[in-house]
Amino acid sequence: MYRREAQLLLEEGASPRQVDSALEEWGMAMGPFAVQDLVGIDIAMSSRHVFAPLEQPGCRKPRVIEMLYTQGRLGKKTDAGWYRYDAGSKQVDPAVDDLIEQVAHEADTNRRSISSEEIIERTIYALINEGARILEEGHASSAADIDLVYAHGYGFPSSRGGPMKYADTVGLGVVYRRVLEFRAVHGANWEPSSLLARLAEAGGSFSDFDHARGKAG
Hints:
By secondary structure, the chain is mostly helical. About 60% of the residues lie in helices and about 5% in strands. The chain has helices at about 1-10, 15-25, 30-40, 40-45, 50, 65-70, 95-105, 115-135, 145-155, 165-170, 170-185, 195-200, 205-210, and strands spanning about 85, 90.
């Protein structure tokens, strides 16, 4: 989802600083790599089994984080993770760039210039699509509840209203078409949720979905 796409963007040509900066400028409290360094890459690795069932068989999985973990680069606690920490000051680490390039070479991935716009779309639209899947599977009662969790628990910018509200602002048709484009390029992890497809094709919104179920939009 969000972190998976952030990490795959590295293999395709972005840098940790570029991804973090794009998302922070967009409004996120912290970028995903800064967060992982703060929490601990060992914690991120220990939770991977929880999210493994959400991954589609045969799809690309991020590898750089595994190499950081193997090398004992666990984030701020070891003064090295996605960044290097000298006397507490976060610095870009060329050693991480080398690992990224190594993984890209081994995967035969042609690295390219990646825009801030693509970084936002790849990470936030993945979050929106997964939110729609959570709704259709009944794991959340409303889109508003999902927004509440992300705004108060994950540093999602309150000015954007949460991922589902943001999707409504952009337009579900726009989001859905972009998800289809990403699926064509990046595979089954981008399979659109049936709820997103249905609402987009009907010209609807997640707010409409909430109101139809008697929930606050």
